[in-house]
Amino acid sequence: MGDYPKALSSYEEALKIQLQSLPPNHPDVASSYNNIGAAYSDMGDYPKALSSHEQALKIKLQSLPPNHPDVASSYNNIGNAYRNMGDYPKALSSYEQALKIKLQSLPPNHPDVAGSYNNIGNAYRNMGDRRTALLFYTNAVQIAQKVLPSTHPHLQMFKRNLERAKQKL
């Protein structure tokens, strides 16, 4: 409904309850930090979003295998926070870490792998390296075309990014 402050308050209350009833490194606690980070991101407070996503990652690294898809998700969220703050090299590093984990833990043609290629392409584009961005966008489109319907919004977005990168060369 777009009431992010209210959502944030609810997520913080949930975290408070979890911290009283669960071990501090429980995956549900990490999920609450992730939700708090998402709310901060939706409100445009990217430094607080980053802090929350880093806390979620710290817990996930304690409670999950290092190549678990949820760990990759945290790296992706951290990359998004850095991207939103304009720190594209740090965003790229986080996106690359997410991709590395996804390639270890998911099938190579998984839609989440395509999403990571697209995010890495965006980071390169934002840093002015359109040729490298083109390579990553191409990978994203090739995977998405195999596993998503032609009308899927992610596939459409990947194709738009690829076409824009081609036009700018």
TrEMBL record:
GO terms for cellular component: kinesin complex; microtubule. Keywords: Cytoplasm, Cytoskeleton, Microtubule, Motor protein, Repeat, TPR repeat. SUPFAM superfamilies: TPR-like. The keyword Cytoplasm applies. Signal peptide: none annotated. It is found in: Cytoplasm, Cytoskeleton. SMART domains: TPR (SM00028). TPR repeats lie at residues 30-63, 72-105, 114-147. Its main location: cytoplasm. Pfam families: TPR_12. Belongs to the kinesin light chain family. PANTHER family: AAA+ ATPASE DOMAIN-CONTAINING PROTEIN (PTHR45641:SF1), TETRATRICOPEPTIDE REPEAT PROTEIN (AFU_ORTHOLOGUE AFUA_6G03870) (PTHR45641). Oligomeric complex composed of two heavy chains and two light chains. Kinesin is a microtubule-associated force-producing protein that play a role in organelle transport. This is Kinesin light chain. It comes from Adineta ricciae (Rotifer).
